[in-house]
């Protein structure tokens, strides 16, 4: 996705479009702390970029143009789910990287389309239509080159690297842009007078291997257009959970029960959506001293309903015998998951007039 | 404390008391067996914190050959003590508590000295008033327990469900157990002056029915705030009651049905056992029953992706109502069918594929019902 968080904020607040937007906790309100998660393209013109201290970005951008928006991860996750659904319509074999990046293996695809450019086009159009956001697509014969291609023209770009042009394509690329070359390796390469793909391509395999070990070998292969890593289709999820941090500590048992009921309901909804059920419930809590406790309980039978999840979470909570009840964070996770191919119907064992024991 | 006693009579009683003694206990003295000798006889006690059992051996009964020299109390390590008594050479043995709780056991040519514990430190037995006793015929009581205890939950996630709910009113006694996937309810006619609503742990009931020998005709039940006491013969069996409210189960038992099948319990059990051979091999332990009313045909299907499939056309006595396809856990049906005894005529009633179905004996439809929830397949 192009400047993902920033683009989502621009969509929600069209007035930000002409401004220099950085998505970060406002350093002016947070004692100069905060890191830029994303900067829009206007802000990038002034040198702001993601992972930069927000304070530095504030100093770079003229005051009258600057807008700082705190990140709204819940919204980004929602948009991310929408995008993943579109990928899922193209192929089941897609590997997500963070919220806004993914590799799709379209060798076989549900559109029965052999023209990859048409597939890229389809994905871009669908995403624009459903989210009003743009993305850039790279097409090639392996993951590394596809990623390099996707970064080549942004925003809303489409780049294809054919096999015969791969080495040529990589020649002018500065090593900083190589996927897999981190800060430390960059530094060492610069010391060796290596600045571009072309410089790297001239290096001897043994020399690069000796200097950088296994990762060196990977880079050597990549710069010659070779990358054998498969697209790892979405791995089966191992857990589904929710947690919340409270600005004001929870102190009464009533508040805690209420939150546990809420979390149990959210988790059971997520389980249902993902068609999963699990045998283990994990309760996480953090007190005002920032001590974090997680405790789990496993069962022979699957747990899925909100009532069951709540009951177990409450049971774990009671067993923890929290003495100083000042709770900053509560979380419930269900793990030991299995796909829900069948489900034992449960009797509604409640009492008149209440849903929970 | 000093006495001698007939060894086999003594062993008969310790084997009952032994049921309550666990080697895994957080209270060390409870790994011991308590002996209390009074002028009238010997009381043996065993306990884990959930159940306690006492057996009384009377001096009056000459078969016991109990000769009392001096009264007193001692707690002896149950495991060693029982093994020793079982292996002693003589028909009788003599037991004497020496200094520092050291206990001398003599029989024939053999002599043991074992270290006991001061009986003062043994927890007191619960206080249960025995003024208001319910007297129940043993065979009926055992039947009630055996028919309901199969449905108790083994999961601690909801403790009340690990017990059987006994509801006693002037109209009779209703026993219910459910683990939320199946439910068993049995009613009997008894008279009681007082109403009771108690939840007895399933494990206690299982131990209790094992303790009651066939010669016992009647047992008495006394109920207090958090304990129940069963007394029969010379035995007193105490159990902790489960705390909390039992869910309302009456409304869960459907009174209407769309499809009904009448079977011989033993025949159906055999069919289900065959079908479950394969379902047990599968991750999902599920079998499917298909009823085609027009063709008068009921078929059971089981499968395991790894092993294969099974299909069996059922032999029933009567079939009426709508077509139906329903999947369920065969183990629940097996447990339920066994609880009816062999060759009982039972009626299975279904409403829909996703609603619980019931099994009732044709002979006694109103007093006994087993309910099983189906499995939803995707």
UniProtKB/TrEMBL annotation, chain A:
Summary of subunit composition and partner proteins: Monomer.
EC number: 2.7.7.7
Family recorded in the similarity comment: Belongs to the DNA polymerase type-Y family.
Function: Poorly processive, error-prone DNA polymerase involved in untargeted mutagenesis. Copies undamaged DNA at stalled replication forks, which arise in vivo from mismatched or misaligned primer ends. These misaligned primers can be extended by PolIV. Exhibits no 3'-5' exonuclease (proofreading) activity. May be involved in translesional synthesis, in conjunction with the beta clamp from PolIII.
Entry keyword set: Cytoplasm, DNA damage, DNA repair, DNA replication, DNA-binding, DNA-directed DNA polymerase, Magnesium, Metal-binding, Mutator protein, Nucleotidyltransferase, Transferase
Top-rank lineage group of the source organism: Bacteria
Cofactor binding notes: Binds 2 magnesium ions per subunit.
Positions bearing the site annotation: Substrate discrimination: 5
Listed HAMAP family: DNApol_IV
Classification via PROSITE patterns: UMUC (PS50173)
InterPro entries: DNA/RNA_pol_sf, DNA_pol_Y-fam_lit_finger_sf, DNA_pol_Y-fam_little_finger, DNA_polymerase-Y, DNApol_IV, IMS_HHH_1, Rev_trsase/Diguanyl_cyclase, UmuC
Reaction catalyzed: DNA(n) + a 2'-deoxyribonucleoside 5'-triphosphate = DNA(n+1) + diphosphate
GO molecular function: damaged DNA binding; DNA-directed DNA polymerase activity; magnesium ion binding
One Gene Ontology CC term in the entry: cytosol
Gene label: dinP
Protein name from the UniProt record: DNA polymerase IV
SUPFAM superfamilies associated with the record: DNA/RNA polymerases, Lesion bypass DNA polymerase (Y-family), little finger domain
GO BP annotation list: DNA repair; DNA-templated DNA replication; error-prone translesion synthesis; SOS response
Subcellular location: Cytoplasm
Cofactor section: Mg(2+)
Residue positions of the active site: 101
Automatic annotation (TrEMBL), chain B:
InterPro entries found in the cross-reference section: DNA_clamp_sf (IPR046938), DNA_polIII_beta (IPR001001), DNA_polIII_beta_C (IPR022635), DNA_polIII_beta_cen (IPR022637), DNA_polIII_beta_N (IPR022634)
Keywords, ordered alphabetically: Cytoplasm, DNA replication, DNA-binding, DNA-directed DNA polymerase, Nucleotidyltransferase, Transferase
DNA polymerase III beta sliding clamp C-terminal domain boundaries: 251-376
Pfam families linked to this entry: DNA_pol3_beta, DNA_pol3_beta_2, DNA_pol3_beta_3
Positions of the DNA polymerase III beta sliding clamp N-terminal domain: 1-126
Domain DNA polymerase III beta sliding clamp central: 136-248
GO BP term (any one): DNA strand elongation involved in DNA replication
Superkingdom of source: Bacteria
GO cellular component terms, A-Z: cytoplasm; DNA polymerase III complex
Location(s) in or outside the cell: Cytoplasm
Family: Belongs to the beta sliding clamp family.
Cited function: Confers DNA tethering and processivity to DNA polymerases and other proteins. Acts as a clamp, forming a ring around DNA (a reaction catalyzed by the clamp-loading complex) which diffuses in an ATP-independent manner freely and bidirectionally along dsDNA. Initially characterized for its ability to contact the catalytic subunit of DNA polymerase III (Pol III), a complex, multichain enzyme responsible for most of the replicative synthesis in bacteria; Pol III exhibits 3'-5' exonuclease proofreading activity.
Subunit structure: Forms a ring-shaped head-to-tail homodimer around DNA.
Name assigned to this protein: Beta sliding clamp
Taxonomic lineage: Bacteria, Bacillati, Bacillota, Bacilli, Lactobacillales
């Amino acid at each position: 996705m192009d400047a993902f968080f920033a683009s989502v904020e621009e969509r929600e607040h069209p007035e930000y479009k002409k401004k220099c937007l950085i998505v970060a906790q406002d350093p002016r309100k947070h004692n100069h702390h905060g890191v830029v998660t994303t900067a829009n393209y206007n802000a990038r013109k002034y040198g702001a970029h993601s992972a930069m201290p927000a304070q530095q970005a504030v100093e770079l951008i003229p005051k009258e143009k600057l807008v700082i928006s705190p990140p709204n991860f819940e919204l980004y996750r929602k948009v991310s789910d929408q995008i993943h659904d579109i990928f899922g319509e193209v192929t089941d074999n897609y590997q997500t990287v963070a919220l806004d990046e993914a590799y799709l293996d379209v060798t076989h695809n549900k559109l029965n389309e052999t023209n990859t450019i048409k597939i890229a086009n389809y994905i871009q159009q669908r995403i624009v239509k459903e989210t009003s956001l743009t993305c850039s697509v790279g097409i090639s014969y392996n993951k590394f080159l596809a990623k390099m291609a996707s970064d080549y023209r942004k925003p809303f770009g489409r780049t294809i690297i054919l096999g015969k042009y791969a080495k040529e394509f990589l020649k002018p690329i500065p090593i900083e842009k190589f996927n897999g070359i981190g800060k430390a390796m960059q530094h060492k390469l610069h010391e060796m007078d290596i600045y571009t793909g072309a410089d790297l391509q001239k290096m001897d395999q043994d020399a690069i291997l000796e200097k950088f070990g296994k990762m060196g070998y990977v880079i050597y292969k990549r710069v010659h257009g070779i990358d054998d890593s498969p697209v790892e289709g979405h791995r089966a999820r191992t857990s589904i959970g929710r947690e919340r941090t409270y600005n004001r500590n929870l102190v009464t048992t009533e508040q805690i029960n209420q939150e546990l009921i809420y979390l149990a309901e959210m988790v059971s909804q997520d389980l249902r959506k993902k068609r999963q059920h699990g045998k283990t419930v994990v309760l996480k809590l953090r007190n005002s001293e920032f001590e974090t406790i997680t405790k789990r309980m496993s069962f022979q039978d699957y747990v899925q309903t909100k009532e069951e999840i709540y009951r177990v979470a409450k049971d774990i909570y009671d067993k923890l015998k929290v003495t100083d009840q000042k709770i900053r964070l509560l979380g419930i996770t269900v793990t030991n998951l299995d796909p829900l191919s069948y489900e034992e119907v449960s009797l509604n064992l409640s009492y008149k007039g209440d849903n929970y024991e | 404390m000093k006495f001698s006693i007939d060894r086999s009579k003594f062993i008969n009683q310790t084997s009952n008391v032994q049921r309550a003694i666990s080697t895994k206990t957080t209270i060390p003295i409870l790994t011991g067996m308590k002996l209390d000798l009074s002028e009238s006889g010997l009381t043996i006690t065993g306990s884990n914190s959930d159940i306690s059992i006492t057996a009384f051996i009377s001096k009056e009964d000459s078969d016991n050959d109990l000769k009392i020299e001096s009264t007193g109390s001692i707690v002896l390590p149950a495991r060693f003590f029982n093994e020793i008594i079982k292996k002693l050479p003589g028909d009788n043995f003599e037991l004497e508590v020496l200094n520092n709780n050291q206990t001398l056991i003599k029989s024939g040519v053999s002599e043991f000295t074992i270290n006991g514990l001061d009986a003062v430190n043994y927890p007191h037995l619960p206080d249960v008033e025995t003024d208001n006793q319910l007297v129940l015929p043993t065979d009926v009581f055992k039947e009630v327990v055996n028919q309901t205890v199969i449905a108790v939950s083994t999961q601690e996630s909801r403790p009340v469900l690990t017990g059987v709910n006994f509801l006693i009113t002037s109209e009779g006694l209703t026993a219910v157990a459910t683990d939320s996937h199946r439910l068993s309810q049995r009613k009997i006619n008894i008279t009681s002056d007082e109403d009771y609503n108690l939840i007895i742990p399933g494990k206690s009931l299982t131990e209790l029915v094992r303790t009651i020998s066939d010669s016992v005709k009647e047992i008495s039940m006394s109920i207090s705030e958090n304990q129940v006491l069963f007394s029969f013969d010379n035995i007193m069996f105490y159990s902790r009651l489960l705390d909390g409210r039992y869910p309302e189960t009456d409304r869960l038992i459907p009174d209407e049905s769309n499809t009904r099948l009448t079977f011989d319990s033993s025949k159906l059990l055999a069919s289900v056992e065959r079908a479950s051979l394969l379902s047990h091999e599968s991750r999902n332990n599920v079998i499917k029953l298909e009823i085609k009313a027009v063709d008068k045909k009921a078929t059971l299907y089981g499968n395991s992706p790894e092993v294969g499939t099974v299909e069996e056309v059922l032999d029933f006595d009567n079939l009426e109502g709508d077509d139906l396809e329903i999947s369920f856990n065969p183990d629940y049906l097996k447990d339920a069918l066994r609880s009816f005894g062999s060759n009982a005529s039972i009626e299975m009633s279904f409403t829909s594929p996703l609603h619980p179905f019931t099994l009732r004996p044709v002979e006694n439809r109103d007093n006994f019902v087993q309910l099983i929830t189906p499995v939803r397949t995707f």
